């Protein structure tokens, strides 16, 4: 026998409450979900698995430069379509599309400011802009960054994330490999430090040029780093590749990297390295 009886119907609401889009983010390696705010507070690194989500120049500049303050260089250099290239769509239309989509004019930004009170020049690529591909503007802006660092004797940091050369600019894109490498040779002659930070992914002509020419070559955990992709290499050589091939950890084990540093420790690590080479450690 029941002593209690429901008098009213279940409580109902007129509107169904929807979860705001993007509040929870899925971690690709674990399948778990993490609150967006928790990721933002941890520089877009999953606190449990350590998975590093890809971020761009806006985020890197915000935590590497003191209080996120910097002076931008080379922003007046903008891309054009000298070859009138067209595949599925016109290159000029594609440029316009990505400029609207990302808010950037091309795939790299350059800033100069202070990092833990050290004067530095930082160039950071944006993968969201046509896969971080290296075209004429990327090469020119990197050239400006290298020249500025050399002339003002400020250490240079280049943060790479790229699918390689920009095919829509043909040989003009490939020329940037030699151009940036030559300018880095001048930087070395001037004894100005250069740190190359490779993130996920760093491939193609970027890896084959400036990304591997640092006085220190470092990477974020789990980054894909290489020239051609694993699938292309596997088809070319006709055999399976070693486990972990082209990951930052594999490259470190085989001597291609100096060290791997989590993003949450990156600013402190970069500062420590620069103080060592600049002899600026306090007694």
UniProtKB/TrEMBL annotation:
It is an enzyme of class 2 (transferase). The keyword Lipid biosynthesis applies. Residues 23-283 form the CoA carboxyltransferase N-terminal domain. Its main location: cytoplasm. It catalyses: N(6)-carboxybiotinyl-L-lysyl-[protein] + acetyl-CoA = N(6)-biotinyl-L-lysyl-[protein] + malonyl-CoA. GO terms for cellular component: acetyl-CoA carboxylase complex. One of its GO terms (molecular function) is carboxyl- or carbamoyltransferase activity. The keyword Lipid metabolism applies. GO terms for biological process: fatty acid biosynthetic process; malonyl-CoA biosynthetic process. Its EC number is 2.1.3.15. It comes from the Bacteria. Belongs to the AccD/PCCB family. Acetyl-CoA carboxylase is a heterohexamer composed of biotin carboxyl carrier protein (AccB), biotin carboxylase (AccC) and two subunits each of ACCase subunit alpha (AccA) and ACCase subunit beta (AccD). HAMAP family: AcetylCoA_CT_beta. This is Acetyl-coenzyme A carboxylase carboxyl transferase subunit beta. It comes from Halalkalibaculum roseum.
């Amino acid at each position: 026998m029941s002593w209690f009886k429901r008098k009213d119907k279940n409580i109902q609401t007129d509107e169904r409450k929807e979860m705001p889009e993007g509040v929870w983010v899925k971690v690709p390696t674990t399948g778990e979900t993490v609150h967006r705010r928790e990721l933002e507070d941890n520089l877009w690194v999953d606190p449990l698995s350590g998975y590093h989500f890809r971020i761009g120049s806006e985020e890197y500049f915000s935590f590497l430069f003191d209080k996120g303050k910097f002076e931008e260089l080379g922003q007046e250099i903008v891309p054009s379509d000298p070859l009138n290239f067209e595949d599925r769509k016109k290159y000029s239309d594609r440029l316009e599309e990505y400029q609207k989509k990302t808010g950037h004019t091309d795939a790299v930004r350059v800033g100069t400011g202070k990092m833990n009170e050290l004067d530095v020049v930082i160039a950071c690529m944006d993968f969201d802009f046509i896969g971080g591909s290296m075209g004429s503007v990327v090469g020119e802006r990197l050239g400006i960054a290298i020249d500025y660092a050399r002339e003002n004797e400020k250490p240079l940091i280049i943060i790479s994330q790229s699918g390689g050369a920009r095919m829509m600019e043909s040989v003009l894109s490939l020329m940037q490999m030699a151009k940036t490498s030559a300018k880095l040779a001048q930087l070395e002659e001037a004894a100005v430090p250069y740190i190359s930070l490779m993130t996920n992914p760093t491939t193609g002509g970027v890896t084959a040029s400036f990304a591997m020419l640092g006085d220190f070559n470092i990477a974020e955990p789990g980054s894909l780093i290489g020239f051609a992709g694993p699938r292309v290499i596997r088809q070319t050589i006709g055999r399976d590749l070693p486990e972990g091939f082209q990951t930052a950890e594999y490259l470190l084990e085989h001597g291609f990297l100096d060290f791997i540093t989590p993003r949450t420790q990156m600013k402190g690590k970069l500062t420590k390295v620069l103080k060592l080479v600049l002899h600026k450690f306090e007694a």
